[in-house]
Amino acid sequence: MKTDKLIEMLARGDDPTPQSRSLLRLALTLGAGLAVSVTLLALWLGVRPDIGVAMMPVMMKAAFSAAAAAAALPLAARLMKPGRPLGWRLGAVALFVALAALVSFTALMGEEPGERMRAWTGGGFPWCLVLVPVLGAPTAALLLWLMRAFTPTRLTMAGAAIGAVSGGVGAMAYSMYCPIDSVAFVTTWYVLAIALCAVLGAVIGARVLRW
Amino acid sequence: MADEAHLRALLLKGMAGEAAAHRAFLAEAAALLRGYFRNRLRARPEDAEDLVQETLVALHTRRDSYDPNFPLTAWMYAIARYRLIDFLRRAKHRAHASLDDGLDIGGVDPDYGASDARRDVATLLAKLPEKQRTAIRLVKLEEKSVHEAATETGYSESDIKISIHRGMKTLMRLMGQEHAS
Fold first, then answer.
1. What fold does the segment set B1-110 form as a domain?
2. What whole-number distance in Å separates Cα of residue B61 and Cα of residue B164?
3. Which of A115, A184, B129, B144 is the Cys-Cys partner for B148 at CB 3.0 to 4.6 Å?
4. From CA A204, how far away is CA A182, in angstroms rounded?
5. ipTM score for this prediction
6. Is B30 in Cβ contact with A15 (below 8 Å)?
7. Could B70 and A151 be called an inter-chain contact, meaning their C-beta atoms sit closer than 8 Å?
C-alpha cells in the first residue's frame, strides 16, 4: 500500500481523541499497590509484635520509604508520554540518594566506634534486600500495566522509575515488620533494596513495556 | 522550527475532529519522517518507507499521548526514534544507524511519489480479528460513516469506534512483527 493511501485510510471517519488523564490514574494505582503490599505483609509476615511501643521508628521508616517513592515518582510520570524533557526529575532521585548517604554517614559517625558495624548492618543479613522487592512487586505489576496504557518510548528508564517507586511502596509496608530501627541501617539498606527494585524494573520494563 | 507551530495546529485540530487537518498533519509528518528514516537507513529505502508507515499508524493511534505543553516535533521524533530502535532490535542491524541524534531531521526528501513500502498494509488487515477488520473495512476503506457501519453490522456506534481504534493498534503491532520475518 502506498503511504498516501494509508494516510487517507487513517484520516477517514475518525473521532475526536480526548486527552488521557494520566495523573489521576497514577495516584489510584499507587493507592491500590500500597493497599495490596500492606495486606500481603499483614497476612504473610505479620506486623512486628511491639508495634504499639515502636510506633515512632515505624512511622519514621515509612516516611523515609514514602520519600524514596516520591523522589522517583515525577520521573515515572514524565516518562508516560513521549518527547517530554526530564529536567530536574533525574536530579531529584540523585538528590535523595545523596541525602540518604549523608544521613547514613552522619548517623554512623555519631555511634561509638565499636558499635558502628552493628548499627550499619543491623547484626545479620539485611532481609529488606529480599522482602522489599517482594512487597513492591504488586505495585510494580500495577504500574507496568498502567504504563502500557500510555506511550513510553524510553522503556529501560521508565521501568527503572517504576521499580524505584514500587520499591518505595514496598518499603513502606516493610517498615511495619522490620525490627531494626538504626538510622544508618535504614538509610543504607532500604536505599539499596529500592535500588535493586529499580534495576529489576529496568530489566523487566525494557521487555514488558514494548509496543 | 517552522514546522513546529504549523504541525502542532494541524494535530490539535485533527484531535478535535477535523479530518482534513488530520490528513494534512499525517501527510506532512510522512514527509519529515521519510527524511528522518532515509537518513538513518540509507542502504534500505524500502525499510525506511515501512517505518514511515508504521510510525504514521503509531502517531495516529497514540495521538492522545501528545502533551500540548511540549513541542510537537519532540513528540513525533521520540515516537519515530522508538519505532526505529524497535526495528533495529528486531532486524539486528544496529550498525546501520546512529541513534543519538533524535531531533536531527536531516535533509527532507520531497519525493512524495516514491512511497511504496515493502510490506502491504492491505494484506495485514486480513489478519485482524473479524470484528476489527469489518469495522475498519466499512469505515476506513468503503468510506461509510460510523452510523452506517453500525446499522449494517448490528454493533453499536461506540463498538465500531472501539473496534477501529483497537484494530489500528493491532495493525501497528503486526507491522512491527513483519519486520522480524
1. Rna Polymerase Sigma Factor; Chain: A (1.10.1740)
2. 10
3. B144
4. 32
5. 0.87
6. no
7. no
